[in-house]
Amino acid sequence: MTATAEAPDRRSYFAEGWNPAAWLLSTDHKRIAWLYLVALLAFFFIGGAAATLIRIELATPAADLVSDDTYNKLFTVHGIVMVWFFLIPSIPATLGNFLLPLMLGAKDLAFPRLNLASWYVFMAGSLTTLYAVIAGGVDTGWTFYTPLSTMFSNSHVSLAAAGVFIVGFSTIMTGINFIVTTHKLRAPGQTWFRLPIFVWTLYATSLVMVLATPVLAASLLLIVADRVFGIGIFDPAQGGDPLLFQHLFWFYSHPAVYIMILPGMGVVSEILPCFSRRPLFGYRFVAYSAMGIALLGFLVWGHHMFVSGQSSFAGVVFSFLSFCIAVPSAIKVFNWTLTMRKGSITFETPMLYALGFLGLFVFGGLAGLFLAALAVDVHLTDTYFVIAHFHYIMVGGMVTAFMAGLHFWWPKMTGRMYSETWGRIAAATTFVGFNLTFFPQFVLGYLGMPRRYHTYPDEFAVWNMLSSAGAVILAFGYLMPLCYLGWSLFRSRRAPDNPWDATGLEWQTSSPPPQHNFATQPEVTGPPYQYELPEIDRPAAPR
Amino acid sequence: MSAEAQGHATGVEPSGEFGVFVFLVSEGLLFSALILGYLVARLAPGADFAAGSRELSLPLGTLNTAVLLSSSFCIALATIWGSERSRWARLAALATVALGIVFLCIKGYEYFEEAQKGLLPFRDMSDRYPKAEPQHLRLFFDVYLALTGTHALHVISGIGLVGGIALFWRRLARPAHTLKLAALYWHFIDVIWVFLFPLLYLAR
Ligand code: HEM
Ligand SMILES: [Cu+2]
Question: Cβ of B9 and A1 within 8 Å?
């Protein structure tokens, strides 16, 4: 923090230099966002590579590519990498990191050095796990269930769990930073109910990060303690309770699925009003429902354990609560839909992705209600229905929202416009590819195909082939942005400060923003999303 | 400060404290999860679990509680003196560190004794306790090790933190403030022990 108030420095944050130290040691939240973005993309493609191998193996009923053992390791890497090294940090650590101070009108996060440290901790942890994978792999699934993970698995469980444990610290650091920043660094006039919904969802996400991650830490710690020292709290032979692990794990992991969707909800809450030229419908409801999801999310973990042998009373209660948690999500969906009603809608790339999110999220969420129904879940649990459910929400929802946000704020982050044509093609391709990949899995699950096997009976062949074919399209959908977004960095039109004619403090500064974000301290005088329909009802956004 | 008039990204002082409190809530959940493990084991039917606590040394545990409470007293003094810019602040911080080390030594001695009696779960206990369910005794020591071990790791980081501040006092921009933040953490460690002590030693 060296800039003086008298002479505001208007040079972009890129002007601070390009040598490695200027990036790796910078405490500027905008640069750290890029560090995370690069690392997370790498992990996304590592996880994607594992998924590719899985889908190739499953293209035919027979085991033709990998052994059962290798297959177990493949879906484990895929799950661990995608959940902890991509989805959990995805939007918060990249877009959130970049935008939170901008949206609040602050110069940086509350703890810039903690922010940088969180990236290093993240790298240390994720590389530890990656080493465990290279050194021979882990075969427990991302859920690390005991007693498989403690007593029977001969793979590198301890090392992989230790890596996830370390990454947990970085999650907590980010959470603390975001919470404190939101409380303490709001610009004059930026009251709680003038905050963009993206900030609300980041806040709710951070609460979950801070409250849930330590419980995961405890359960992973106990697994490592069991494997290394023989401290058998989960070991029935010593009187321990293996089910306790599932309780602890899902006490973290169900809230964690909301870490993986809330920021996505925030992103589309920014985009839909902008490209409909309408204020967000029911702002307070959308804000409160984010908090509602964060709190209720802690009360439903038992729906992952309906067949685990927990008491049937517990099963009924968890089933009921799981239905309840669909309510705040549904409130959001209604509000998004009503936002677009009578709007002047244009279909730029971010909007296409956001609409894709809406459809896929609703579909995945409704599938969640099937699973929340106790009796139905007994049939569907551990089948491809569950796989399809959470991929619709996590990939169809969150990854799509991530792409939406990336396209929406790319001009702000880089100062460059990307090719709109290619953007739309990619958005459409992912939507088609995604549905082709995962819709067949609903059918497969309904027909009874269990998850986590590398072979299957012949009658499942057609649906699996469709799914694998869809995965190819999906892969193109994800590779395309890598190319045209990368290309846009060097060879593309410069972005104006506010290319979408959007509201929000982040659009009031230059693109890309100067090092301290705003030349002068911004003030907020009104509610967010003050969009107005254009006088003549034709697309208002500049092309 | 009112919610309306904030900003300028300068609020380091209140931010730091608030940040530490949020962190401590997070830490609290870590211990809650472990204590849940304790409760599950204790309430399991037919457990000889409580027999484990009868094997612990109550005098040493009590002594350790006293040591840790005094250390909290020391660091409270250190923060007060720090805010008064008194030179005693550093000394009190060092006393805190010393008491922390005494705590660890006593804890280490307890572990040593228990290992001598063959109680720690690193080897089979069935020859020593040929009773019906030696595994419940063992489970107690599993839980005991997990809880006190995690706590001890926190004491160690607390010692590093407070010791570091005391040593580099002159080089810190605002040593008294930093010490205050560390003190919050230290008190937290103390509070956790105040829960662990009755659970493990007193509920026999
Ligand atoms: C409408 C709200 C939701 C409901 C009612 C719901 C319900 C369920 C239920 C009952 C299961 C357990 C199925 C089984 O194992 O038999 C489940 C699994 C799962 N859900 Fe959801 N869900 C909802 C939203 C979400 C969201 C938002 C996400 C992620 C962003 C998500 C991710 C997952 C994952 C990852 C699993 C499977 C974990 C595993 O076994 O590996 N769900 N869901
Ligand atoms: Cu769940």
Answer: yes
